[in-house]
């Protein structure tokens, strides 16, 4: 891929895991097959123009990360707000990929998603997998067209990974501002996925890139991280 584009990694949630005994450990430094979680995340999703939104100002990245700009983010009303703050200094005319700081897919699948999104001239793309767990966001299709996106509500079998593509950062801002203007919140927070309902309103038809559910590794909580780390390690061997 020779096209220039931006990448935003959203690691602006809580930087700690709380263990059952009440003690706390660093989420960015959680070990994933011999490498820190934050290193796994950035090495999978990074590009030549990467912005890392984080609440943990102590995060230290290893060498070869000179293409990553850390953007300190305070406590906001959700990932959508954090994303708007984090991209204020990026080139808004370039395409942008947005990825979570607490979930992984294989680099092979991610690179293929990037290539297809950039080469297909899609306005919006996202990665989905099969699930019925209400902790995810979901898309509903009708006659191969996107008709609805919901957060933490199972409206179909197609869950989102939290990885999105917009052909310009301007388009993402339009989606985000529409969601905020229409007060589309879940549990008092603004999430990214429901902002894609703007695409439905505008008659756009986002491209859906399907991966196997076993290629999605989530690290939102310590319990999830322990299970996902074991799967990731086994799958990497």
Q: What is this entry, summarized?
A:
By secondary structure, the protein is of the alpha/beta class.
Please explain how this structure is put together.
InterPro entries: Nucleotide-diphossugar_trans. This protein is α/β, with parallel strands linked by helices and 237 residues long. It has a single domain (6-236), classed as Spore Coat Polysaccharide Biosynthesis Protein SpsA, Chain A. It has helices at residues 37-45, 79-86, 107-119, 169-181, 197-202, 222-236, and strands at 6-11, 16-18, 24-26, 31-32, 35-36, 50-54, 68-72, 96-100, 103-104, 124-130, 137-142, 145-151, 158-166, 207-210, 217-218. The strands form four sheets. Strands 1, 6, 7, 8, 10, 11, 12, 13 and 14 form a nine-stranded mixed sheet that branches. Strand 2 (16-18) and strand 3 form a beta hairpin. The longest helix is centred in the C-terminal third of the chain and has 15 residues, at 222-236.
What would the keywords be for this entry?
single chain; 237 residues; alpha/beta; Spore Coat Polysaccharide Biosynthesis Protein SpsA, Chain A; two-stranded antiparallel sheet; 6 helices; 29% strand; Nucleotide-diphossugar_trans
Q: What string, H for helix and E for strand, traces the elements in order?
A: EEEEEHEEHEEHEEEEHHEEH
Low-confidence runs: none
Estimate the mean pLDDT confidence.
Answer: 92
> Could you give the count of β-strands?
15
The termini sit apart by 27 Å
Please tell me the total number of domains.
1
What overall geometry do the principal axes of the alpha carbons give?
A: globular
| SS-derived structural category | alpha/beta
Note the main sheet: 9 strands, mixed
How much of the sequence is in beta strands? 25-35%
CATH superfamily: Spore Coat Polysaccharide Biosynthesis Protein SpsA, Chain A
Kindly report the CATH topology.
Answer: Spore Coat Polysaccharide Biosynthesis Protein SpsA, Chain A
